[in-house]
Design brief:
Elements: H1 22-28, E1 29-33, E2 39-43, H2 59-69, H3 75-102, H4 110-141, H5 145-151, H6 155-173, H7 176-188
Antiparallel strand pairs: 1-2
Helix pairs in contact: 2-3, 2-4, 3-4, 4-6
């Protein structure tokens, strides 16, 4: 396990955990997120002045990153992680079932096209929201250009971005106006 920044006196007995609220926990510590997305907890001393405390990070950003990236931090984070895994599995099932049930897009009825488009739209909305929230939280914790760029060099984030862009690109390619523009360009060449 990672080294803990708490001293022996800062650690509570398990019996005291349920009595602690989120505000109590946040008052006892300040959480930082480093560029490599690992959390470090630094205990605060109640006797120190506000000016000697390290820079406070936005609470919503810390909570968002814990919920979306660290399933071990709470039951809610574990539930969200499992739900996202379920959404990924459902998306893969839909991708596999579409050609088996409806055939090629050219042979689909308007109702079938609308059904598969609705499913894709729901999945892409969930994935886009997840990626956007994680990116905004990471950037708000360390508001630097390199943080914004380095977020997308982290391998899981690269995979998420490629998957999301592929779905958007796939839908754009099937818009009649875009297809007409592509055909016009091909005709010119």
């Amino acid at each position: 396990p990672p080294a803990c920044a708490f001293s022996e006196s800062d650690v509570l007995d398990a019996a005291e955990w349920p009595a602690m609220s989120c505000d109590d926990i946040l008052e006892r510590s300040i959480s930082y997120h480093s560029p490599d997305h690992t959390a470090v907890v630094v205990p605060t001393d109640k006797n120190t002045s506000e000016t000697s405390d390290p820079v406070q990070t936005p609470r919503w950003a810390r909570i968002t990153l814990d919920l979306l990236e660290n399933p071990e931090t709470s039951k809610a984070a574990l539930c969200i992680t499992r739900c996202m895994a379920g959404v990924v599995v459902l998306n893969v099932i839909c991708i596999c079932l579409e050609p088996l049930i409806s055939g090629k897009r050219a042979n689909q009825t308007p109702e079938e096209r609308a059904l598969w488009l609705t499913a894709d739209t729901i999945f892409i909305s969930v994935f886009s929201l997840d990626l956007m929230l994680r990116w905004l939280a990471t950037v708000s914790l360390e508001p630097k250009l390199m943080t914004a760029v380095s977020f997308f060099t982290h391998p899981p984030n690269v995979c998420d971005l490629i998957a999301i862009c592929e779905i958007y690109f796939d839908h754009l390619m099937h818009l009649p106006l875009l297809r007409a523009l592509m055909l016009e360009r091909i005709a010119r060449d």
